[in-house]
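Example 4.3 (complexes with small molecules)
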Amino acid sequence: MPYDIKEYKMYIGGQWVDAASGKTYESLCPGDNEVHAILPLGDKKDVDRAVEAARDAFDNTEWALPYNFPERAKLLRAAAAKIRDNLDYLAELESKDGGKTITESTLIDVHHTADCFDFYADLAGSFGGDVIRAPGEWFDFTLREPLGVCGAVVAWNFPIMYTGWKMAPALAMGNTCVFKPAQVTSCTALGIAKICDEVGFPPGTINVVSGPGSKVGSAIAAHMDVDKISFTGSTEVGRKILELSAGNIKKTTLELGGKSPNIVFDDADINDAVSGTMTGIFFNAGQVCIAGSRLFVQEGIYDQFLEQLISRTKNIVVGHPLDWDARMGAISSPDQMETIMKYIEIGKKEATLACGGRRIDKGELAKGNFIEPTIFTDITPDKTIFKEEIFGPVLAVIKFSSEEEVIAMANDTIYGLASGVWTNDLKRAFRVIHALKAGTVWVNNYSMLTPQTTHGGYKQSGYGKDLGKYAIEGYTQIKNVYLDTRLGELIAIFE
Ligand code: NAP
Ligand code: MG
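Answer. The structure with magnesium ion bound is encoded below.
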């Protein structure tokens, strides 16, 4: 459908500005590839402006001072409330821009974002330091201090949620931030900046620069005056971010790719496990870093499980992101759709296609980027689609016999982001929890994430945490203070 095209500006130093170059780009709705927004095409110059504003707010205002946390908490809470007040607007914008269903945006993404702002508001005052007992006549304590200017560069799959994951903890701890959304999904990050501006965040504390990763993202990562970068994206670009960050030894948090195992044992509740498996791979059309894209089902229930999984998958209603009846939306860009289709073609040679496998190119959905939910069976772990992250609605299934065998296969990956295990045997659950090399294990669930819980990878899925109290580690540094109490009686080493 044709949209009322909205023109956006970037948010730098409390001002709404065009790109320094004056260039713009169009953002499309993945449901029909119609233009719905025009945004500034930022580059290094805009990053320089944003970093300067963020630096000034951090160094020269009261923002970062320890006693200012009630003000920071108040602003975060006000933003959370205003995000909820604008639920319908933000959810529609998120779906239009990124392709996820309006149901997902409305019921999950926007609420989760507001909840993050509230959660970190609560934590703003609760991270002090420790008093250290040390052998000597001094008093020793630590102070937890903000890092300074925190950059964030994020992927296109959960655009609004990443503002809650990255901005909220950074701001709560007294940092200032320069946020770069993915180019194809920048609208809601600018929407959050507008809300933050309206509730009164001081100029420079939040800056949002739109534009391509190759220019804006790399400029943030390389900037000598950015103290930290939190990156969510592919392992490949994560490696580049690390190299670029080396110049000033930036602190880094890397939330990278995944190829997560989901393991169903014979004694699991089959109905629940099928539901969880489907959420794990088809939520957000599979464009989820934690997607349970490698499914292992034990031989005793394999046939029954697969029959139910395939028949329920065939019933998934794929539809336009703004269609309330749709349960799976669009792939966020034609490029990503092409990548997924290439993997599906490879899969057809490597395995048996059990369902799906086609681009939907007929009827109303033909203009958009839609792929059928797809399941491959009869595959071995050495195959491409079982090893590489596809980032789409494509599941590969293996039948296994023993716990030992499945653990070895589950861990045989460069990634370690998440994992799932379905069993009613508590002893087995604990054995598997310990054996899996992944940052998250869900037991009898898949995909649950809340602001209170935490998220982050093992191995090449990265390091550092988003969400929960652990994220605070990534936005603070520890200062140790020795306060000598022997006034006038210090033991001299040098006479
Ligand atoms: P991506 O290509 O790595 O891009 C991520 C971000 O980096 C985007 O903002 C992108 O900008 C920017 N970027 C690209 N090239 C850059 C460069 N040379 N220097 C600096 N920044 C650069 O990833 P994606 O395709 O958006 O997202 C999919 C990947 O992200 C998957 O691997 C997925 O697993 C991972 N992911 C991980 C998590 C997690 O929490 N672990 C969450 C979500 C996604 P533009 O796109 O605007 O050009
Ligand atoms: Mg878009």
